[in-house]
Amino acid sequence: MSDDEADPELLELLRKSLGLGGSFQNAPAETRVLESAEHVYNNSIDIAVDSRGTKAAAQMIWSLMQQRNYCTKTWSSHKLHPKTKDENAVNFIFTMDLLNFSFFSDKSAGDRFCVSYKGIRWTGYWSLVAALQRALDEGIPITSSDFWQNETECTEAILRKVFRSATEEEIPLFAERLRCLREAGRVLYERFDCSFLNCLVEADGSAAALVNLLAENFSCFRDETIYAGKTVKFYKRAQILVADLWACFEGEGYGAFYDIDKITMFADYRIPQMLHTLGCLRYSPPLEHHIRQLKPIDKGHSWETQLRGCSIWCVELLKREILRKHPETQVNAILIDFFLYDYMQERQVAGEEEIPHHRTRSIWY
Length: 365
What we know:
Layout: H1 8-17, H2 33-42, E1 47-49, H3 51-67, H4 72-77, H5 87-98, E2 115-117, E3 120-122, H6 125-137, H7 145-149, H8 156-162, H9 174-191, H10 197-203, H11 207-217, E4 224-227, E5 230-233, H12 236-248, H13 270-277, E6 281-283, H14 285-292, H15 302-325, H16 333-349
Antiparallel strand pairs: 1-6, 2-3, 4-5
Helix pairs in contact: 2-15, 3-15, 5-12, 10-11, 11-12, 13-16
């Protein structure tokens, strides 16, 4: 959108103030995440998308996804993800993505935060999933919004037990996770009759509507910042919540969304790392030096916004290239993101990281 174009959100507010409705109010929901990413890309100073590298990566990604038969079923094949297709799975996914942020550690592999569950030590994102599964096994109703609201039962001590570590390092941003649970419990009570299922009912089968509903009603999902004079929206956790529902239920039942392809890649710290490794993203010397030195980047900093926005746009270009070369392929940004995340984890375990991920402490990812 150029500077001369009217802002759709301002137009909507003006129409409402004048009592004008009609077809505009019934228009399909849009998250504006992709539009935001394109704005960041168009105004990026420190990050460039390498066209040749992106085309080569698209072919490699498509080939590997075909070899591995990568699809929504892959999500449920992970050991810790819910295996049932019911309301319990919905509540688990909502809780999981409510707290799905900031797991990196600068400590050694043996000293970083990890969760011991069923004889295995889990780190990163999987430490959260393991902690939730362990809590349920121990009789703690961690996926219940009624429990989150009850400060007599859901105490700080109980939550520290839920997220207890097998090492001396505790889970990052513990206080922020507690606040997310409390806020979500309150909003569900006040607005959605104590049930996240009512959010799905209100979204009425629209992935974009559900993302917007989450961002509008829960401040902990309102992942926005300002870049080059405009508000940009990333909505990482709101989008991945929709994607996880879609993948868990394989596009049916609670996971049926008629506009699922409006969901973009989830702007975090792992996918930019992978896109750089694949030669899709190029960094300015100051930014690359900063990342390689493991120096933190403040949330909202221009570098962080560029990393996130350009990654979303790059994955969009990867998707377009795959579909251009292989129009019969069933692929979207969600599956590409899931694949790149899993592939990056494999490379990390094999000691094949070519560049560290950027380090930003934030509840957004």
